[in-house]
Amino acid sequence: MPANVEHEKALIGRILAGDVDLFHELVRPYEKLVYVTIFTMLRNEAEAEDGAQEVMINAFRHLKSFRGDSKFSTWLVTIAMNEARQRLRKAKAAPQESLDEEKEEREGDFTPVVLTDWREIPSEALEKKEMRQKIRAAVEQLPPIYREVLVLRDLEELNQEETANALGISITLVKVRLHRARMMLQKLLAPYLKTAAPANKGFFGRMFS
Amino acid sequence: MKLECKHVWEHISEYLDHQLDAELLKDIENHLENCEVCSAILDSTRNILVLTADNRTYELPVGYSERLHKRLEKALRDAESAPEKPA
Fold this sequence. Notes:
The structure holds 2 protein chains of 2 kinds. Chain A is mainly alpha-helical. Helices cover 67% and strands 0% of the residues of chain A. Chain A has helices spanning 5-16, 22-27, 31-42, 45-61, 72-90, 95-103, 129-141, 144-155, 160-167, 171-196, 203-208. The longest helix of chain A is centred in the C-terminal third of the chain and has 26 residues, at 171-196.
């Protein structure tokens, strides 16, 4: 939903001038964005909902500091990711997560899953609840440092610079982590998508026919 | 230059983001044209990302919006939380 930037600017101006009720209208298009950002990180509905409420309240309290040099949605997503990270920290990192971080700098050998009989986007696959669950589960399996980059870049569509700023890391690290996150996701999901795709002649079928 | 599959995989993400320099891009596209395995991996990665970002993949809890605006309403009413108004 491409929000009308001018309309948003005007709303923000009026809210800051005291017409606070308009804040409801301002954030309505971004309710889901904020929730999904936190949910993907915390993996818990109730916590994500509470976090999303906090984010919106914080956004209201700090609306004055929104400078308008980024999109309002980007600003909100950044606040949401901060909230998620804070809550993750509070829940203190599970031992396996610190191990995952150690693995990072190691040059990982990655072998993607080959999937040749599924070329079209099976968008109708998403009509199946099972498929949506599989995708969410795969995202949840990514170690947090990769998940947060994937969420900001590919789900919330922040650019590299915005992502780097939101996470306090370099653009190079954003690129490295994003690549690995995407490849991990490919590896986790390709096998399921294969079975979800209509039966088709596979790689060897096409090759030798 | 002839690329190995493994080398192509390392650049899938940059390829999807259109961040490869012209020379490498040409080599990779050459490879993709002739390598069914790599082009399938590229397609599946792209498709998986499209599905992951699809609006249907994540759902809001029932009543989420109502509860959010109710809590917001309280915050908006709360004098302390009101944004600073110009004098």
